[in-house]
Amino acid sequence: MQNFKYIGKKLFVEKSSVKNIAKKNQTPFYLYSGNQIKENYINFATNFKAVSPLICFATKANTNLKILNMLAKLGSGADVVSGGELLKAIKAGIKPNKIVFSGVGKTEQELKMAISKKILLINIESESEAILIDKIAKKMSKKVSVGFRLNPNVDAKTHKKISTGKAENKFGLSIKNFMNFYKKTDQFKNLSVDALSVHIGSQILSDVPYKKTLKILDKLITKLKIKLKYVDLGGGFGISYKKEDRLINLKSYAKLVAEFKKKINCKIIFEPGRSLIGNTGILISKIQYIKKGQNKKFVIIDAGMNDFMRTALYDAVHDIIPISKKNKKENIAVEFVGPICETSCKFVKYNKYQKVSEDELVAITNVGAYGSSLSSNYNTKPLIAEIIVNKNKFKIIKKKQDLYKLINS
């Protein structure tokens, strides 16, 4: 979060004071750094320069139209998992020939939409899906470019709820099933099998599972003598949520991918999401109440699990930092919790924290990915605003939802 720092004792995003932004906008709200988004994208592209991949941003990580448009201008494509994400990516200016459609449960309506929009690839995740796409394509008199998503049975050593590449996970075809099914693909006259796809999980902090996956792909492609236009290596690259988190050496991994690409002779696709957007946002919240518990102090903020779901859903740890720093810390445990009527509406606990007061502001960090995109109207709460900073200026890129429109909808 290089673009989020204290100047003196006040928190700034780029050259903008968070406190000053909060004076003009009702809390809670998401606050992004435009420069951080650009830096992250350029850094990723630079690390894989020798590979020259198609970078398809995992749209589910953040679906804000303005952010998608920024990525489009930087050259990004999109990995989408619904018809809504597909339409949003196109509306944001991402070209259809840079869009890959993934997901285990695509509907007939979504598939018709993807085919009519002439997107780059539909990644097939089951035999039944292949049959359906071929049937739809025949009716539409189209030849559809598809990939098959492989489940390589690789443990990414990540949280069980974001593991997608093990045999027990619902995603993709097992190696055995793919090998058997690939022999029958000639039956599908309206499908062009142009790609193999893998995505083994999210928030991955080691390159070991990626290396294993490359070896499995290499062995399989060589054995079946498959001629491919693309190999989609997915995403899943982690970010540093905690000080002890050690990130993957992308340059080292890029060398392995370059060797793989040369041998297989195809275009590489990546689907990064969190690594491009995770550290670009903070969630600004006001301390509503402070309440003494038996062994700790509850700091009740106005942001809840409806605004930011990751802690309740994944037991994720996100630091909460003050907008104004103080030197003195209290020798009492402090737990930051939200207003939603669920025990799981809580964020993080500290054994020591600076003395805080009601009405002061704090920021939940590293919320750019799976923050706003996972938010909901639970407890009939309006969706909150999203704001982006460019140097010393800020702009609202999504207005707060109107409460009265919400209750009448």
Task: Write a concise keyword list for the protein shown above.
Lyase, Ornithine Decarboxylase, Chain A, domain 1; 9-stranded mixed β-sheet; 8-stranded parallel β-barrel; 409 residues; TIM Barrel; alpha/beta; 2 domains
Largest sheet properties: 9 strands, mixed
- Rg from alpha-carbon coordinates: 23 Å
Number of domains: 2
- The total count of helices amounts to 12
Q: Judging by the overall fold, what is the CATH architecture of the largest domain?
A: Alpha-Beta Barrel
Helix content: 25-40%
Shape, principal axes of CA atoms: elongated
Strand residue percentage: 25-35%
The poorly predicted ranges are 158-167
Through-space gap between termini: 38 Å
What does this structure look like?
The chain is of the alpha/beta class. The protein has 2 domains: 4-32 and 279-407, Lyase, Ornithine Decarboxylase, Chain A, domain 1 (Beta Barrel), CATH 2.40.37.10; 34-277, Alpha-Beta Barrel (TIM Barrel), CATH 3.20.20.10. Helices cover 28% and strands 25% of the residues. The chain has helices at residues 18-23, 34-47, 65-74, 83-91, 108-116, 127-139, 175-182, 208-224, 250-264, 274-277, 310-314, 403-407; strands at 4-7, 10-13, 16-17, 29-33, 54-58, 77-80, 99-101, 121-124, 144-151, 173-174, 191-197, 230-232, 267-270, 281-292, 297-301, 320-322, 329-330, 334-337, 346-350, 353-354, 361-364, 385-390, 393-398. Strands 4, 14, 15, 16, 18, 19, 21, 22 and 23 form a 9-stranded mixed beta sheet that branches. Strand 22 (385-390) and strand 23 form a beta hairpin.
